[in-house]
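In this notebook, the sequence line spells out the residues, with the fold written below as integer tokens. This is how one looks.
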Amino acid sequence: MTSFAPALSHVGNRLKGIGHGWLGLAAVLAAQAVVDAGALPARVESVAGSFASTAPFLLLAVAFAAYSKASGADTLIARAFVGREGRMVLVAALFGALSPFCSCGVIPVIAALLAMGVPLSAVMAFWLASPLMDPTMFAMTTGILGLEFALAKTVIAAGIGAGGGYLTMMLGRTGLLTDPLREGVGNGGCGAASVRKPNAAVHWKFWTEGARRETFAKNAWSNLLFLGQWLALAFALEAMMLSYLPQEAVASVLGGDSWFAIPLAAVVGIPAYLNGYAALPLVSGLMEQGMSAGAGMAFLVAGGITCIPAGIAVWALARPPVFALYLGSAFGGAILFSLAVAPLL
């Protein structure tokens, strides 16, 4: 038995170096091969397609964060937010409600903002609001569920973002949310060096100095590998859900109209949510079967922010207290705001 110990230790160290996200992706694809090997190429193609559509945002965010770190420009961002946190929460929530990011696609942007020292409260506001609405989603929602529903969802997106942002700002003053990013992601968010050295000089042409070029390369590569593995896993899980989660099962759970319909829809929306566009016709069909508009809203809002693929990506990025606050704000906001707008729909 003891003769196997060195070999097992070596294997364990190699697996650690691979990264949990890549291991998770391999496990999901292996499970697909066991369940239905013939469908494996389609799953890989789906993951590759989703990754390709997100790649421009991922690369831009990684390059921006690396440039800010190598040049010292992150200190300018830190200065811009000093003394303006409350206003920035509101602006971030409003901007997030109109931004073209999905729940997974927004992750690289969030990582870049936190790594540069942007206050967690403003980032949380953007984080919560962004996946729920964008110009294309507004048009699609209007066409399928009506203009009133689309307007209400836009207001809810901004409201949940602002509410979560201000709650984060209050909790942040207690010291509970120090260093929101996990180890190895950026440099610790609100505890970043850019905040500790707000008056450091900025070297815009960082490529003229070898040490800064090295900083850029290391920062870009580490963030790309880290974010890439978790986004790939999230897209693989999404592809499996789209294929194996029957819409009839969701309809049977959410097809009624009762006092607990809205909370139940919010709960079911977390694991059952497919993606923003696929969920719209599903909710439309459920509403035709008798589900209330408020329950439909709760399903779209809670699922849009906290669906399993997005949740995995957030868990990989943020420390447990921040992850819990993210989920709590999304879930609580989905129920409260859906209850508030239900009589108007």
